[in-house]
Amino acid sequence: MMSADSHNRISRRRFLIRSGWLAVGATVVASCSSFRSLLPALPTFDDPELEDSLTWVQVLPTGGIRFFCPRMEMGQGASLGLSQVVAEELNVDQSEIECVLPNTQQTPPFKMTVSSESIADFFDPVSYGAARLREALRTVAAKKAGIRPGQIRDGRGGFVLPDGSALRYGALVPSEPLVISDPAVSEAEKNPPRYALQRQGAYKAIGHKWKHTELEKIVTGQTVFSQDVALPAMLHGQVIRPPSFGAILLDADGRVAQAMSGVVAVVVDKKSNFVGVVADNPFVLPGAIEAISAKWHVADDIDQNSLDEILDVEDLRARDDFEHKLASSGDIDIGRQRARHRVSARYDTPFLAHAAMEPRAAVASVGGNRVEIWCGSQDPFFVQRRVAEIVGRAEDEVVVYSHRMGGAFGGRIRCQASEEAAILSAAVDRPVRVSWDREAEFQNNYFQPVYSHFIDAGVTPTGAISHWDHDFVSSPILTGSVPKSISWAVDMFTADEGTARGGMPPYRVADRRVRYSDVRTEVPVGAWRGLGAAPNSFAIESVMDELAASAGIDPLEFRLQNLSPTQERLAGVLRRVAKLSGWGRVMPQGAGRGLACAVYKGETAVAIVVEIEVDRATGEVRATKVWCAQDCGLVVNPNQVEAQIAGNIVWGCGMALKEQITIAAGSVEERNFDGYEILRHHETPEINVALVAPPDTPPVGAGEAAIAPVAAAIANAVFDATGHRARRLPICGARVIP
Amino acid sequence: MDININGRIVTVPEKFRDVTLLEFIRSSVGLKGTKYGCGAGLCGACTVHIDGAAVRSCQTVAADAVGRRVTTIEGLSKVAPEAGLHPVQTAWIEEAVPQCGYCQPGQIMTAVALLAHDPNPSDDTIRNEMSGNLCRCGTYPRIHRAIVRAARERGNHDVRR
């Protein structure tokens, strides 16, 4: 433990020296899980610490603020929202903040950007770091003016002295880095006033509809995504990836390719299952790849049927074989006897792809004393560790430059393109670019796992839920990326919380049992927008609709009267969405309405009403209108949160009606957007959003909350329109026709 | 073997005749605003204009653009009636359309071509004409609003004149 702590302290100090700290920094002792150093490189899990935040905000000699945003940007707008928090603390305007996606040398490691945590979990530390900086500068100002800090008032972009004269931040930045070491700081300084927490109702930046500074660059094509990175002496690489899950490279003959004009090298490494080619221009790559004959041992016995057999909830129920218990109270057999109406139903969802619009790409430059990577990743420090491991360098010799991602949705946590580029660059001693094509994206990334649910529940004569017996099986998501070498140990000791996310119903049931199994298959799975939230909510909220229908109770009333007493905020959004949508309105023939709700990560309450139309001839379902009420606490930027909600609804419609990955002969059948269809513009419903929050509630996750109830709301609307229960996603036209 | 790209004459070397216009624009000319999304004409991220019509540059070879006028997202402001941003780009910023932003150059190129042949499109026309441009972030509602805004503001502009 001693050595781990001292190592950590040194690395933070070294960081401060290396980065030429301008204004305020700190040396701190971090908590450290010493065992992690024994494992292969893993994603960055540690939650932010307040002290880390001291390195995120700088004042420049010009008086401007530079904010090294500890969150990666993929369109969710976290860098904008957190800039607003910085602005609130430092009393500056948007134009005075330069928000930077830091490279791995510019800040200490921060947690991967996942799980809708960027505002929820970083609001507080960002506020703290900016407030500490402000108060440290106030102390400098006081010394300079020969008065007490308490006599100095805040001004825009600086301070106001008792005589009314302004002192801008720029005038206070010392020529030498000022480093606060923790022991020297008084308790008062450690607890600065926090405007971002205290100014509610009088915010100058938070809650305002700031627009992202990147917008103009995006609409003029100037934004540099990882696909767009170009270095002067850069070569171009392409990799032949395994043709099936778990395929093993037997042999590869690159002699013909090697002799082609423009080809610099063919790299074959059987031990690493790697075949790649490097050329001096990208145009010869397809021909060169075709000229390489690679032989693989292919595992082609994995197909959708065999996977569905493994992930079959009814089979596990027959064997009473569930690994984990999320809830168990009362006695479901006794509860079952109280049921006047009973529902027993199976619900299934398929493998799903992220299908972000930007295929992944990276440029690597593996040089003599420095390794540089340009990429877009949800976890640049994981890229740093992985590349260091692969090219056999110390971590701090590797610098990762982060670019805005063209969508991520959980799909950019692994570091594939960066690793491939690094291997190729190391082989040819020149910078190499690798970019994936669309087929590689569908074939070689990881997926949302299949979910198979069975729920048995009932309604008592008084309209209460008699019992809730819910079993489900899927695959481990949060630990989906751990290497095979340690997955057995991980599976032995952990129940995957990501798989179980949203698995607990928010309703009052005395006699209940929720069990699940997280079974690893050959199909690579991992984080996908909301993790378990959407598939679990699909089952739970569909069954709630079935129960309400069986008892002849309005679905809204049924939910409100059965909500657990702790779910006041969920009740709030249910009532709000009912009002917004005019719930209870009679639908014309061929149309229907459905309702569903969820509490994302136990925090964000969201309720959805969907109106659909069914084509009587084809059974095709189209969502025409969606109303959403969401309570995610304090909203830092309503414009961004509404955009996230709309995005979740569009995504949820695609999930409900179109998306599906299928496996045949050991690989993915879908290769492009014709096989894997996502929602298109003309299929998008009209969307109405209401944001509600009780006063003084902190911000909670907004990036993937609203997806949770969408599929169930659509399935419930299909039932309303047709009498058909859609229990398997995607909802297929042919099965819907009454 | 010359293409007029954004007003600049670019010669297509013999060896690049058969590469896609997308790859030629990005890798040879070095204009990175036009994006690769699917390589199969399914997503619209690579949309450019050839003689004013929206075209999938991943489905066109460089030789086919020879002797013609190609406009990419970088050249859009040059064909705008006023200096600076094209009104559609301005509308995109006003409505804060982009999330990740990757598909937006293609969306904008399709929208500009749509408004050029139908200055006042109906909602249904917008839905249908934009259906070939995918956006995984789900910015379609704001894309729709931005097109309506651009059409309306151009109408106002014409009235003022």
Mean of residue pLDDT of chain A? 92
Separation of the first and last Cα atoms of chain A: 66 Å
Q: Sum up the overall morphology of chain B in one term.
A: globular
Gyration radius of chain A (Cα, Å) is 27 Å
For the record, the CATH class of the largest domain in chain B is: Mainly Alpha
Helix content of chain A: 25-40%
Helical stretch tally of chain B: 5
Q: What CATH first level of the largest domain in chain A would be assigned?
A: Alpha Beta
Number of domains in the coordinates of chain A?
Answer: 3
Descriptive report:
- Chain A has 22 helices and 28 strands.
- Chain A is globular, with a radius of gyration of 27 Å.
- In chain A, the strands form 8 sheets. Chain A has a 7-stranded mixed beta sheet, with helices on both faces. Chain A has a 5-stranded mixed beta sheet with strand order 14-22-21-20-15.
- In chain A, strand 5 and strand 6 form a beta hairpin.
- In chain A, about 30% of the residues lie in helices and about 20% in strands.
- Chain A is an alpha+beta fold and about 750 residues long.
- Chain B folds into 2 domains: about 70 residues, Ubiquitin-like (UB roll); about 80 residues, DNA polymerase, domain 1 (Orthogonal Bundle).
- In chain B, about 35% of the residues lie in helices and about 10% in strands.
- Chain B is built from 5 helices and 5 strands.
- Chain B has a 5-stranded mixed beta sheet, covered by helices on one side.
- In chain B, helix 2 packs across helix 5.
- At the A-B interface, helix 6 and helix 20 of A face helix 2, helix 3, helix 4 and helix 5 of B.
